Amino acid sequence: MKKSTLFSTVVLFAIFFGTLFSCKKTAQTSTQLVFDSIVVKEQIPLLETNDTTLPFADVKVSFTYPVKFGNKEDLARLQQIFVGTFFNSLNLDTLSPREAVDAYLADYKKEYKSLSNTYYSEKSQLPKGETPMWYWYYMYNTNKVMFQNDSLLGYAVEYSDYTGGAHGSYRITYTNIDLAELTTVSEEDIFVPNYKKPLTEIIINRLMAQHHVTVPDSLINLGFFDLDELIPNNNFWLSDKGIHYSYNQYEIAPYSMGVIDVDIPYENLSAILKPDNVIQKFFPTK
């Protein structure tokens, strides 16, 4: 029943596609950023049995993280950010990438197997021969780089899972790292104080343009939730073209509409960008 494959492949390329850059944190020394990947594929049986017809959790984790960057302290900090954001846990970001993967999967396995306490009781309430199908779980987690240059690294973490209920879920989160300071970038680093209302208006205008409508109420007719509740959600990645937001399922629209992406060119944001903001640092020509 149980199939497990665990392998690690060193990805010998600079920032995924062979880019070399100079980093302030490493005394302006040209530093190659090298990644390693831990990939786990495993089927976790709910019950202690070899019966392959019984429920299991299908698990696939593909975690790419840096193994070479600057000095030892720089690398440790960068790995800490990757671990903390991939597993969405401050309890794991003090662990090495391998230890974090092992701890995360051990917790998942423990939680999933605890469901065996209710499996037989729920099965007994169904017609003879039927099995509660909601015990077949899955979890697929991965990450990928969205943008990089000599001072910025932005990446996405994608989560897809089923934990019972009518359907599974998918969500995506973004992290932008200032490679000179080794800190993450938030909306407050980019925009002036009291930016949320004007930024919300910009987001709604971009949604209207992307959906080819001219008034906000038309978005509601397309399925969007109450626009009065739409706010910037800090879930974005930066590129040389603009800022790219994503709203996950149920944030501003129903599950059936999936993840909603909103792309905003920098020229649309000029009125609310901070003086000397990080955009100018990452993209000096903007």
Automatic annotation (TrEMBL):
InterPro entries in UniProt: DUF3298 (IPR021729), PdaC (IPR025303), PdaC/RsiV-like_sf (IPR037126)
Domain Deacetylase PdaC per the UniProt entry, residue ranges: 61-169
Domain DUF3298: residue ranges: 188-267
Gene3D superfamilies listed in its UniProt record: Fervidobacterium nodosum Rt17-B1 like, Heat-shock cognate protein, ATPase
Pfam families named among the record's database cross-references: DUF3298 (PF11738), PdaC (PF13739)
Protein name, UniProt field: DUF3298 domain-containing protein
Organism in which the protein naturally occurs: bioreactor metagenome
